[in-house]
Write a structure and sequence with these properties.
Number of strands: 8
Distance between the termini: 22 Å
CATH superfamily: Aminohydrolase, N-terminal nucleophile (Ntn) domain
CATH class: Alpha Beta
CATH architecture: 4-Layer Sandwich
Number of domains: 1
InterPro entries: ASN_synthetase/amidase, AsnB_N, GATase_2_dom, Ntn_hydrolases_N
Number of helices: 3
Protein name: Glutamine amidotransferase type-2 domain-containing protein
Shape: globular
Radius of gyration: 15 Å
Largest sheet: 4 strands, antiparallel
Organism: marine metagenome
Structural class: mainly beta
Strand content: 25-35%
CATH topology: Glutamine Phosphoribosylpyrophosphate, subunit 1, domain 1
Strand order of the largest sheet: 3-4-5-6
Length: 156
C-alpha cells in the first residue's frame, strides 16, 4: 500500500505494526522531508506508547515546543508537536485546538488502544478511510492505497 504513495514521500518509507486486543494495527508512511530533514523519520514514537504518522505542516510547532519544555523531545520536526499536545491534554478534544497548521494524521495510543484520525479544519491535507467487509479499518492519503489492500472491495 505504501509503495503506491511513494510520489507523496520520496525521502523514505517506514512501517510499524503491533498486535492489539482487536487483532492488530499497522502504519505505513512515505516521507517528504521538509522540517528536520534527517531526524524526523516516521512513525514517531513517544515514551508513553503513542505512535504517530502525519502528512502536513504544523505552523506553531515552535510555540508548542516552547510551552512543553518538560516533554522528552526526540526530534526537531514539526510533527512531534502533535504527540506533545496529545500527551499534555486535559481532556479528549481540546488538545487539537492547540495545533495550527495543515495535517492529516493517525495517532495510536497503546495504553488506551485508541486510534485517532484527524484532518486540519479546512481539509487541506487528505485523509480517506473505509471499512472492509470484516470490519478492518483502512486509511491513507489517497484512495488508491486503500484499493491495494487485499480485503478492500469497492462498493457504491
Amino acid at each position: 500500500m505504501a509503495s503506491l504513495l511513494q510520489h507523496r514521500g520520496p525521502d523514505g518509507t517506514r512501517s510499524w505494526s503491533i498486535p492489539c486486543r482487536h487483532g492488530g494495527i499497522g502504519f505505513g508512511h512515505t516521507r517528504l522531508s521538509i522540517v528536520d530533514i534527517v531526524g524526523s523519520d516516521q512513525p514517531l514514537y513517544s515514551d508513553n506508547g503513542c505512535v504517530l504518522i502525519v502528512n502536513g505542516e504544523i505552523y506553531n510547532h515552535r510555540d508548542i515546543r516552547e510551552s512543553s519544555r518538560n516533554y522528552p523531545w526526540r526530534t526537531n520536526g514539526d510533527g512531534e508537536a502533535i504527540l506533545s499536545a496529545y500527551e499534555s491534554r486535559s481532556n479528549s478534544v481540546d488538545w487539537l485546538n492547540r495545533i495550527d497548521g495543515i495535517w492529516g494524521f493517525a495517532l495510536w495510543d497503546s495504553k488506551t488502544e485508541q486510534l485517532i484520525l484527524s484532518r486540519d479544519p479546512l481539509g487541506v491535507k487528505p485523509l480517506v478511510r473505509t471499512l472492509t467487509r470484516d470490519g478492518t479499518l483502512l486509511f491513507g492519503s489517497e484512495t488508491k492505497a486503500l484499493r491495494a489492500h487485499p480485503q478492500h472491495t469497492p462498493e457504491l
